[in-house]
Write a structure and sequence with these properties.
Elements: H1 2-6, E1 11-17, E2 26-32, E3 40-50, H2 52-59, E4 70-71, E5 75-83, E6 95-99, E7 111-115, E8 119-121, H3 128-132, H4 135-148, E9 156-160, H5 165-176, E10 180-184, H6 190-195, E11 200-202, E12 216-221, H7 225-231, E13 235-243, H8 250-255, E14 259-262, H9 269-280, E15 288-293, H10 297-304, E16 313-317
Parallel strand pairs: 9-10, 9-12, 10-11, 12-13, 13-14, 15-16
Antiparallel strand pairs: 1-2, 1-4, 3-5, 3-7, 3-16, 5-6, 6-8
The structure holds NADP nicotinamide-adenine-dinucleotide phosphate (NAP).
Length: 318
Amino acid sequence: MDSVRSTLPKFFKAVQIDGFGGIEAMHYRDVSFVRPAPDQIVVRIAAAGVGPWDAWIRAGNSVLPQPLPLTLGSDIAGTVVLVGDGVKGLFSGDEIFGVTNPRFTDGYAEYAIANAGMVARKPTALSFEEAASVPVIAVTAWQMLFEQAHVKKGDRVLVLGGAGSVGAFAVQLAHRAGAYVLAGASRRDTDFVMSLGADQAMDPREQTFAKFRHSIDVVVDLVGGETLDRSFETVKPGGRVVSAVAEPNAERAATAKISANFMLVAVTTSTLLALSELLEIGALRTRVGELLPLSQAQLAHEMLEGRKHAPGKIVLVP
Ligand SMILES: NC(=O)c1ccc[n+]([C@@H]2O[C@H](COP(=O)([O-])OP(=O)(O)OC[C@H]3O[C@@H](n4cnc5c(N)ncnc54)[C@H](OP(=O)(O)O)[C@@H]3O)[C@@H](O)[C@H]2O)c1
């Protein structure tokens, strides 16, 4: 390990925070290398994805403990440059994609340490930028549909936030599983969600759910708030609501005789490999919106917080 280590720079650039706060809390600066622990790898980052949860962590709203200072970011694609003890099946020079660690930190950097069990070989059909846009959002969609809600052929699935990053994967995966997919999306995104395989689209900000009362087997919620609350009426007794945003109201769920729960994604090599197979053959597609230099991570967070940007995932390039 040490001969490779000596070829690596002593310092590399990363985007860190010393305290939780606004966008001004982010600092682009030099940090020094740390030796990977057993079962970890060091990756030279080619691209790092930006997601809404990065802003939650920056602001101090993560549900997970986040020791400071920390480097923001978790979605990565790049090349393995160092392999820790005990890592099997990954070697220096391998091109990988995945997530850094279960706290969703350390990705906005030129180099990152990642848990070997949270990455997989990058699909060859995808660029690094495309690959970095995939891990958290696609694995979230997969786990909501198949591990939480057990969606199967013939189910009727409502995806709230169907045109968003997670939603776009949920619509595609539910469609591929043979479900009838109703996408909740703004009117301007109707063509987009239909192109992903939605059978029908509706805008929950413009329409009530009355027309869909007791017609849905599974609600995949990526919006939360009153949209999540209102969606309960669509679900058949015995149906399921899974939210990636908020803990659904247990009392209302019991009254409606449905199951409802919050889920936190757990990125694993095996789920990434399952997604990779579909990405490799073009059966799943990802949408990169803005490509920005790593030094402009603050601009990326302004976009997360409403600044105008191209639709699709924001990706940082060191
Ligand atoms: N629990 C987990 O493990 C986990 C993992 C990943 C993501 N998440 C969370 O899941 C959520 C979605 O993530 P994402 O990356 O897909 O975000 P995103 O790309 O911003 O997508 C959110 C979607 O929700 C729509 N939306 C927002 N407010 C709405 C409302 N009031 N009514 C209807 N639609 C509305 C947006 O539509 P417009 O563009 O038309 O506003 C957008 O299409 C975020 O809160 C994220 O933090 C959780």
